Automatic annotation (TrEMBL):
Lineage: Eukaryota, Metazoa, Chordata, Craniata, Vertebrata
UniProt keyword terms in alphabetical order: Coiled coil, Repeat
Coiled coil start-end: 8-84
Annotated gene: Ankrd24
PANTHER family (UniProt xref): ANKYCORBIN (PTHR24129)
An annotated Gene Ontology molecular function: actin binding
Protein name listed in UniProt: ANR24 protein
Organism of origin: Molothrus ater (Brown-headed cowbird)
Amino acid sequence: RAQHEAAEAGLRAEAAALAQRLQELERRHEKTCEEVFRVQRQALFMKSERQAAEDRLGAAQKQLEQAQDEVRRLRELHGQAEDAARLVRDRDRKITELSKEVFRLKEALNALPESGGPPQSPPNTAALQARIRALEEKLEETETRHSKVVMLYRSHLLYAVQ
């Protein structure tokens, strides 16, 4: 009987030790479960943050593409404006040259009757007058085209500024 009681006491002590070990394992299991839950929650949060960052990146890339398109369009407009400015300068130069030639011809025409020399032949005078009229018409036409180019240039510049 003493042996039996000793064995029973040993078994009870072993059962108590096992129960205590089981409680310890249950606490560790609970902590592990809490840690797993916290890690899962953090992973879910990170995933949503990543998705939000990817969305922001996509929006930023779209804005960048739009800005690059706008830059290309503005460069094209700038090139067109420079071409228009070059045309304006060319037209101004032509207008100036034509104006000078018309002025010289008018001076030559005015000088003809005033000179005390022999009278010029009428066909030469008529030819000079016809030439003056043609040059004046060409001058008016060039000035009209010039004003159209200037208006186009101004509209391009205004559009580029806007």
